[in-house]
Amino acid sequence: MADDNAGAPTPYAPAAPGTVAVYRGATLFDGTGGPLRPSTTIVLDGPVVRAVGDDRAIGAGLPAGAGLPAGAEVFDLDGRFVVPGLIDSHQHLATPPDRPAAEAVLRRLAFGGVTAVRDMADDLRQVGDLARATLVGEIPGPDIRYAALMAGPGFFDDPRTHQVTRGATPGAVPWMQAITADTDLPLAVAAARGTHATAVKIYADLDRDTVAAITAEAHRQGIHVWAHATVFPATPGDLVAAGADSLSHVTLLPFEVAEDRLISYHDKPAVDHARFASGDEPGLAALFARMKERGTVLDATAGMWLTDLLAGDTPESAARARANAELAAVLTAQAHRAGVAISTGTDYETDPGDPFPALYEELDFLVRRCGIPADQVLRSATLVGARAAGAEDVMGSVEAGKLANFAVLDENPLQDIGNLRTVALTVKRGRRFERAEFDRTDPEGSR
Fold this sequence. Notes:
By secondary structure, this protein is α/β, with parallel strands linked by helices. The protein is built from twelve helices and 18 strands.
C-alpha cells in the first residue's frame, strides 16, 4: 500500500502554522466580558491567534518592514465589528442520518459565523465522520463536539433511537446504551469514549443514584456529562447534585417542583404554567442558586417553541407551543437574573432556503423575549458555549493562544442583535469563509 497518498482534497483546511494574517482596524467584542475595543489588530499564526491589541501598539511590536512579518497578509476591517465564533450548544445532525442535508446545514453555519456546535446524540457513525471532515477541511462547517447517549431500557422504544442505530440494536451500541442495575459502568463509559465523544448525554428513565454513578464514572474517565434537565424519575436537582456539566431544555425545569411523582420520560405529569408566570417560583429559585454555585450551564433552547414544527397544525398544538414559549421566556429570564450561565442551543434548524441559521433566532429570543442584554447573550453564544462544549481553553473568546475563530459584521450587534445578519466574513481556525461566496442552501437538502 502506497504511503504517499494525500487522501481526499481538503479545500477548507485550517490555515497552516506559520501563515501570518493580520486583521487591522477591528471594533472587537472579545468575549471576555470587557467593553468593545475599537482600533484593534488581531494577528493570526495559522489556526491560532498570536496577538490582540491596539492597532498602533501591535504594529510597533511586529518585526520586518512596516511593522509586519515578511509575507503577512493584511486585512483592513475599517472599524467593522468582530465577535468570537458563535457556538450552537444543541444541534442534531444525524437523526435520521442524511448526509447531504447535514452538509448543507454545516455549510450555512460556517458562512453564518458559527465555528462550533454540540451535537446532542445522533447516529455517531455519521456524526463522527462529519466532525472529521469539518476539522480537516474536506467540507465547510464548524467544529463538532458530540455526545453518546445513555438512558433506561424503556426509552429505546422511541422511534428516533431506531433511526440512529440502523443495522444494529437500539440500546446495545456504544452511542446509544441502555443502562440497568447490571451495567458495567466503567465499560459503558469507555465504549462511549471509543466513539470519540466529548460527553455522555443522560437522557431518560434513570433514577437519581444511577445518574450519580454515570456522572462520577464519566468524570473519572475525563469526559463531560450533558443531561436533559429532567431525566424522569431523576429531577433537575438530582442532576445538579450529581455534577452534570449542563442541563438542556429550560421547559423541563418545572418538574423540579412537580407535585406528582415522576415516573418515566413518556409519562410526564402536567405543568401548571400559571405557577411560574411571575418569574420568582421559590423552588426554581433554589435550584438556580445551586446551579450557579456548581457552575452548571443551562442549555435553554428557549426559542424553539416559536418554530412551525412545534406549533403543529391544530389550534391545540399552536396554543401549547405559545404557552411553552412564554414559559421558556419567563424561566430563562429568572435563571439569568439568578446568575446561571446560559448557553445558546437551538435543537432545530431553519428551513433549507433560509440564508441564516437557527442560532440567530435563539439569540434574538434571549434578547427580545427574555430581556437579556445583547452583550450577555453574545457571551452566552461564545464563551459560555465553549464551556458547555468542554472547549473553553481553546475557543469562545478572541485571545492570544486560542483558535482563530471569529466573525466580522458590518453593523454593531450590541445595538441590535439582528445585526448578526450583516455577517461579512467568518474565520474558523484561520481559514476565511467570505459571506459573498455563500449561495443559498439547496432547497432539495431538507432535513
